[in-house]
Amino acid sequence: MTFDLSTKSLAKDLLLLASVYQSGLGKTWQNQTEAAGALARLKVTRAHINRAVRLNAMPRAVLSLFSSTKVRDATARELIRIENNLGRDELQRRAENIDAKGRRWQELVAMLEGVPPPIRRRAEWKDVTPMERASQFANGLASNLWSTVAEAATITGWDRPKLARAVAISKLPLEVLSLFDGSYMSLEVGETLIGIQRTIGKEKLIRNAMSLHDRPKRRTTDELLNALAGARDYSDMSLKIRATPTRISFEMTFDVENAEQLLIDEDEVKGHIQAILMLSPQREKRKK
User: Fold this and answer.
1) Which positions ≥6 away from 40 have C-beta within 8 Å?
2) Residue 3 and residue 19: Cα distance in Å, rounded?
3) Mind listing the pLDDT tens digit for each residue in 26-58?
4) Which terminus of the chain is more exposed, N or C, with fewer CB under 10 A?
5) What is the pLDDT of residues 149-168, one digit of tens each?
6) pTM across the whole model
7) Cβ atoms of residues 35 and 24 within 8 Å
8) What is d(CA 166, CA 164) in angstroms, rounded to the nearest whole number?
9) ∠ CA 270-272-277 to the nearest 5 degrees?
10) CA 25, 28, 31, 36: dihedral to nearest 10 degrees?
11) Domain limits of the chain?
């Protein structure tokens, strides 16, 4: 049996670690200490290997409860503790009477132990900005609490689509994000920025952002979005731009006395819109 370990941290997947250990036992290493030395580059310790072996020896009825949620080190610690307290036979009996569908790992552990499961608390997005939520998600990744957006949403009760958008917003260029006060950037503004980036391209978006940094002054959110999209600044007309991955909307406002000039001067109006559309992915597809 072969394993692709080039990008894996085995300490995060103890059942895989158990398979790797058993495959190398008597060949690549003779005991857990030697295996830990050989796998140290993958952040594996002897304690990880010991827990992996003990976990792998548990009844299949127990392990099958976690078939849809990767068994992490924290989960293995809890299962080993419960097995020590209850004994293997009782642990198996309880596992056989548990329906794991839709359960988080914390709930499954609680049910095996016979204690009330932790209460799910759905976070209120009005109290947390996208950048703050993305930071919380990143901290959870670093702490091995979860490995995907879906897993984080299941564990925390966070809204999965909103979490995914928050993570995407946090990956916008730093030159762009630094123009906004992260404490006040809404999902709507972040999604508009993502739409602008998809429309004009990342490099052009960064150039526009750097141009704004070179000319620092107080700007409203709409003025920042317009400038990042590439619209020129006209004193007699304002433009609000909102974008999604597939749609862009414009709201133009101007004084009635200037309407005739604006309607006659086609290039002046086109200057606002062309900056958004000239690199549109949909437009490029139509050319092909």
Assistant:
1) none
2) 9
3) 999 999 999 999 988 888 899 999 999 999 999
4) C
5) 988 888 888 888 999 999 99
6) 0.46
7) yes
8) 5
9) 80
10) -120
11) 10-113, 125-171, 187-287
